[in-house]
UniProtKB/TrEMBL annotation:
Pfam families: MDMPI_N
Organism for this UniProt entry: Mycobacterium lentiflavum
Gene3D superfamilies xrefs: dinb family like domain (1.20.120.450)
GO molecular-function terms, A-Z: metal ion binding
InterPro entries with a match to the protein in the record: DinB/YfiT-like (IPR034660), MDMPI_metal-binding (IPR024344)
Annotated protein name in UniProt: Mycothiol-dependent maleylpyruvate isomerase metal-binding domain-containing protein
Length: 302
């Protein structure tokens, strides 16, 4: 049934965008998605960016206690939901500015954009989460329909395709934060696209929260089967980038999902990198967020 619905919806994105672009429709649809049993099934009709990851995240979010702690250190489910709602609102606003020809502005920091959402009740926040997601859906589709246009988001210039991949990455990561390493999370985190995005686009975003670090190894290679090597370099600022073909740095190996989690500043558990213990310790230390800076005010795309 749903396959036939998608076949009908796909050719009419322009019409769908116009309908969802109306605030009253967004608000009403968001209320249904948040409050009506089975409502999230209607997300397939909205054709949201990264639809599979979005539906998987929504199922995890709605099943969790809003006050439950997550694997994103110091954050509850409610706070992660606020983070994503605020991020969607920010994307929608920046795209609107770009397409209107108005002057661009810097991306607001996490505290400025997230605090109003964190202050909402759990029920109201869930509605706003869906409402902002629908706004972002419309914005990204409008950007997609404007070839050559892009927006600067958190210091990185992203077109519609890159924005969609970033949204997908965030949803996959934060679902893991809530439910951990089940089959859905491991499969999604192992996607080579998500790992490359973390090592390139996300690594270039600001603020950089990795702590300054010296040590025996200036650069270490993170290697996963079937994926490009990634170089992690310590110093005044830890940097992450795709490795050159002729590198001579020490190598540690890990599961693709574990590598993606490490790059995002997470502790993946038993699937930590394997290799010389000193080299492993070096790369884990370089990628561990600075505990003095990881707060609601400063966090690497928590």
């Amino acid at each position: 049934m749903w396959a036939s619905v998608r076949d009908v919806v796909a050719p009419v994105n322009t019409t769908l965008t116009k309908i969802l672009g109306r605030h009253v429709v967004q608000a009403g649809f968001a209320r249904v998605l948040a409050d009506v049993p089975g409502g999230p099934g209607l997300l397939r009709l909205a054709n949201t960016p990264a639809q599979g990851a979005f539906i998987a995240f929504v199922a995890a979010m709605l099943a969790a206690d809003p006050d439950a702690p997550t694997r994103c250190a110091g954050w509850t489910v409610h706070e992660l939901t606020a983070h994503l709602a605020a991020g969607s609102a920010e994307i929608a606003d920046l795209v609107a500015l770009e397409l209107s020809g108005a002057a661009s502005r810097p991306t607001r920091d996490f505290e400025e954009r997230e605090a109003p959402y964190r202050a909402l009740s759990p029920k109201r926040l869930r509605r706003r989460f869906f409402e902002e997601a629908l706004k972002a859906t419309v914005a990204v589709e409008r950007l997609r329909q404007a070839p050559g246009r892009s927006v600067a988001f958190t210091g990185a210039v992203l077109d519609a395709r890159a924005l969609t991949l970033h949204v997908e990455s965030e949803l996959i990561l934060h679902r893991w934060d809530i439910v951990g390493g089940d089959e859905i999370s491991i499969r999604a985190l192992s996607d080579a696209r998500i790992g490359v995005h973390a090592a390139t686009t996300v690594a270039a975003m600001k603020p950089n929260v990795f702590p300054p670090r010296g040590g025996e190894y200036e650069s270490v290679i993170l290697r996963s089967a079937g994926a490009s090597d990634i170089t992690v370099t310590g110093g005044p600022v830890t940097t992450i980038e795709l490795a050159s073909a002729d590198h001579l740095h020490p190598v540690v190996e890990c599961h693709p999902a574990a590598r993606t989690l490490l790059i995002w500043g997470r502790c993946p558990g038993p699937d930590l990198p394997v290799g010389d213990p000193k080299t492993v310790d070096a790369v884990i230390t370089m990628l561990r967020p600075n505990p003095h800076r990881v707060t609601h005010h400063e966090h690497q795309e928590c």
